[in-house]
Amino acid sequence: METRLGKDIIMADPEVSTQSGGYDAELFVDTPDYDLICTICQGVLRQETCPCCRKPVNATLIFVMFKLSKSIGRMKIKCKNEIRGCAETFPLSEQYCHSMSCLYELIPCPYQGCRAQLLRRDLDTHARHCEHWRQPCHMGCGTILSHRTQAQHNCYKQLRQEYEVRQKNHRAIATALQRKMRRMQSTMAHMKRQIGLICESLEVMDDLHEAEEEEDLGESSGNSNETPSSNMGSC
């Protein structure tokens, strides 16, 4: 049997196990010991619960389960891709790592849009002909290339075109800024003229107001001079 502690040691691919949960005995290089075979699923023991009563493994047996798990993890198995040509054998605990690098592992094409399934060893060959192949230019210009455009791609020409496009955009931006500055300058000049006219109007109004005040003062002083003369005549 196997506990959760044992799972941390045996990193086995799910396909290694039988439908009932045990490790498929046919995958082991040497026939597993009879005592390691589950009487229910006929696979090498890996259950967290007793296959007979379905009760969890007693906590007092954890250490025993741990040692048993390590022993099973050291047993050598054949690659699940043996039918496709892989002749590698390795400890059960290394099965997951092997599957990540096995040349006979069936994997999907990594290029978006391609639905091909192929062996890992054939990936490079497939990539040379896959119509969905896309890669950035290895010279670093940033262009995404396909097989069709790769042969005609010229980094210098591409960079030259991008430079000319950017230069054209910069000129357009500079021209637009110049027009905006001229409009702003024209608006400011108009505002200055308006302010000047307002100031002139205020000065004229001030002059008129002062003149009116002077006239009022003159009339007041004239009236005050006439009053004593009239009083003397009556005497």
From TrEMBL:
Any GO MF annotation of the entry: zinc ion binding
InterPro entries associated with the record: Znf_RING/FYVE/PHD, Znf_TRAF
Keywords: Metal-binding, Zinc, Zinc-finger
Zinc finger residue ranges, TRAF-type: 98-141
Region of interest: Disordered: 210-235
PROSITE patterns associated with the record: ZF_TRAF
Pfam families associated with the record: zf-TRAF
Domain named TRAF-type: residues: 98-141
Membrane-spanning ranges: none
Protein name (database record): TRAF-type domain-containing protein
UniProt source species: Scophthalmus maximus (Turbot)
